[in-house]
Amino acid sequence: MSSHLAPNNLPQNDLPRNELPRNELPRSELPQNRLAKHAVEVHKFGGSSLASVECVNRVVEIIQRNCQLDDIVVVSANGDTTDDLIEIFQLAIENSDQLHQAIDGLKQKQQGLAKGLLSDVNTGALFTAIEQDFALLAKWLQLDIRAHEAELLAFGEMWSARLLAAVLAERVCPSYAIDARTFLVIDDEVNCQVDYEQSRDKLQRQLNGQQLAVITGYIARDAQGLPCTLGRNGSDYSATILAALTDAQNVTLWTDVDGIYSADPRVVPLARKLHRVPRTVAKELGRLGNPVLHAKTLKPLVQVGSHLNVASSFDPATIGTEVGDFGQIAQQELSVTSLNDLLLVESAALKGEQGQQIASEFAALSGDVNTGQLVIRLAQQKLISESLVSLGQEIKFTPVAIIAVVGHQAAQRANLRARFKRALKHQGMIALFNALHQDSLVAVLPQAVTAELLNTVHHDVIKDARHIGLVVAGLGNIGEQFLAMLPRQLEQVKALENVHLVGLLSSTKRLFQLDGIEPEHAVSSFQQLATPYQIDGLVEQLTAHPYDELIVVDITPSEAFSQLYGQLFSHGIHVIGANKWAASAPLAEYQANKAIAAENQALWLGNTTVGAGLPINHAIDDLLQSGDRILEISGIFSGTLSWLFEHFDGAQAFGRLLTDALSQGITEPDPREDLSGRDVQRKLLILARMAGFELSLEDITCENLVPQALRDISLSEFLARVDELDQPFAARLKQAQQAGQCIRYIARFSADAGKLTAQVRLESIATSDAFASLIPCDNIFKVTSDWYQDNPLIIRGPGAGREVTAGGLHSDLANACKQLSSKQHQVKLKGINE
């Protein structure tokens, strides 16, 4: 979408997002007398989106943020105005005593909206127009109101368009209202086929350059020039017609729900939003009763290839649903819909080619021309009966309802068909059709579809269709190993069956493919297709994802990337982090991130921040969740220091041992990073916080094993002087051996009577101590708690290595997906669109 309303002759970026343009905007030098233009986008607002002063004000804000002067705004009648007009029509036919009261009430509603939104000067002008319309209504009532039904119903859209155009002109930019009856020509109210050539020519003569057009939805003229309507919800159809007439790139239907759902969310509370819906699937949804989509809405978009967006005017910041041409992931989406009060028609005349022609002529909802059966609406009974009788064929009508599963090539999915049939096994199903449309399976039932049945079928059919996007940040050794393991994990771990790799990030390049990156070719795809990016705009790019959930796996050592966590959490994006920076950040920052994550139901898992794949974080969390209380945490947390001190027995100088470890890749490129103890210090902090204690890095005393004289010199000079480490370490070892002990670099935390102590240092310990005998590079963790006092809990094993760390990340991923499978989203529902 456009970022904000800006005149055509200014780049969008010339105005800050929050600086809203007004009437005093610079005007183009283009002539102002009815210029032809092409709409960049069409924005349609439904009746509920315009129902009150508050709603209209919200719409004005949406237009300011999302429209340019090239765009077109289409409006429905405000709130329940159309219902009020239909009631007036009925009361007039019945010559009811309540007629004038209803008319007065409607006039007061319209005047009340104008008073609440406009200055006195502009209110007066609008009042005059409203009075003229009601005077015309009074004239029709004196004649025959039946002859003016379409004109009466058109008042709602006209009042709505005039009002919004006046508000925009007063507050935002030059705006004007257009009556669609001045340009939109259809064949008749039954078929609503548009005469595009004539309508396009007439529309171009109506459009004014450098002004925002607000156009009525729902109303048109037929081929004889008579006013007519497009049917209830026809304003959506009007919007897509206008897109075709103006070659618009996008159409946004601003409604009262934030997208298209897997079922009607009023009836099915667990319905999930479909972020991207293939065009043919959306068309089938509209045809089979989806409450958001008008049956004809998508037809005009085929001509120009425009994308359709469905968004909520009550929650405009939330990403809605996009309808267009998408790949495999979007094609897996499914939805359940239903219609009651239908007829099953059975006749020999409905077989074969003749049956196909009749099905097309009557827009049959479903059926099978091989068996001579069609499902139609009740209102079509008389016409189809007359048609079939004229052919001399017997005909049978049976009252029925339908429930349908809609999705890309649904009719070809054998497992879906079987699952659908199982869900309906107790319903006495008359037929299961898929012969007319490949994107749906339609079950015909002898009784109405209840809310209970719709929920049951939705649960049985849609329950495994939740889609999770996966972004991997950090493509070093561990990142490549994680990706190498991913194809097998996706295939074998049930919790990951709807996980899709959609993003890869290095420190300078990115690859985003919303239709999925093949995990088997992830690294090569990144090498060939990745493009540069700036970290400052990364979160905004990530938030524009079309998935139920998004998980970022952070395998970077980057502090800058860890500082994005709060922003990610605020958008409900989940993080699995091997990155230690966020978990060991200053206490206030850490607590803020935890709070943001909790508030937005975002998961933050970090088992691999300590102990690679060892389940130390899981163990601590399990104890706390079970009601235990942690008293002490200690152990050897560094695989590098574990290797060094398991091998250091005095037979070889410490400096030489350190150089050997460096050559084998056991240490960091600068071994002083390991010897400083900072990594162990951060790990102890992370575990203490995991155990529920408020601790800062400064609260943990840390013994740096690098002599002061060697800390600030270059790496090359340090390696040249590494023998200066020999004597100090030899002395520490000798002192320990004389006492029958050994030396180990140990982290210790304790909470004794409310007093917290934490330290990491080189200690002399007995050779019988649990920390004294490890396989080199192993970690060991000892946890003492109320439940584990006399015999503390011990966890030991590899504390480093690409395989075990990548495995730990996959463990967190599976855990996260299991948690998300039961997560429920609250649908912000204001009622279904007018």
Record the SSE blueprint.
Blueprint: E1 41-45, H1 53-66, E2 72-75, H2 81-93, H3 99-117, H4 120-142, H5 149-171, E3 175-178, H6 196-206, E4 212-216, E5 219-221, E6 227-229, H7 234-246, E7 250-255, E8 260-261, E9 273-274, E10 276-278, H8 279-287, H9 301-304, E11 307-312, E12 321-324, H10 328-331, E13 334-346, H11 352-361, E14 366-368, E15 373-377, H12 381-389, E16 396-407, H13 414-423, E17 431-433, E18 440-445, H14 451-462, E19 468-473, H15 477-492, E20 499-505, E21 509-512, H16 522-529, E22 531-532, H17 538-543, E23 549-554, H18 559-562, H19 565-570, E24 574-577, H20 587-599, E25 604-605, H21 616-625, E26 630-636, H22 639-647, H23 654-663, H24 672-675, H25 678-690, E27 701-702, H26 715-720, H27 726-738, E28 741-752, E29 755-766, E30 778-785, E31 793-798, H28 802-821
Parallel strand pairs: 1-2, 1-7, 2-4, 3-4, 7-11, 10-12, 19-20, 19-23, 23-24, 24-25, 27-29
Antiparallel strand pairs: 5-6, 8-9, 11-12, 13-15, 13-16, 14-15, 16-18, 17-18, 20-21, 21-22, 26-28, 26-30, 28-29, 30-31
Keywords: Amino-acid biosynthesis, ATP-binding, Kinase, Metal-binding, Methionine biosynthesis, Multifunctional enzyme, NAD, NADP, Nucleotide-binding, Oxidoreductase, Sodium, Threonine biosynthesis, Transferase
Domain Aspartate/glutamate/uridylate kinase: 42-303
Pfam families: AA_kinase, Homoserine_dh, NAD_binding_3
The average pLDDT score comes to 89
The CATH class of the largest domain turns out to be Alpha Beta
Under the CATH scheme, the architecture of the largest domain is 3-Layer(aba) Sandwich
Query: What name does CATH use for the topology of the largest domain?
Result: Carbamate kinase
> What class do helices, strands and sheet pairing give?
alpha/beta
Distance between the termini: 23 Å
Specify the biggest β-sheet. 8 strands, mixed
The main sheet orders its strands as 3-4-2-1-7-11-12-10
Report strand %: 15-25%
What's the alpha carbon Rg, rounded to whole Å? 35 Å
Question: How many runs of DSSP E, i.e. beta strands?
Answer: 31
How much helicity do the residues have? 25-40%
Q: Name the CATH superfamily classification of the largest domain.
A: Acetylglutamate kinase-like
The stretches of 5 or more residues where confidence is low (pLDDT under 50) are 6-38
Overall geometry comes to elongated
Number of helices: 28
Number of separate domains:
4
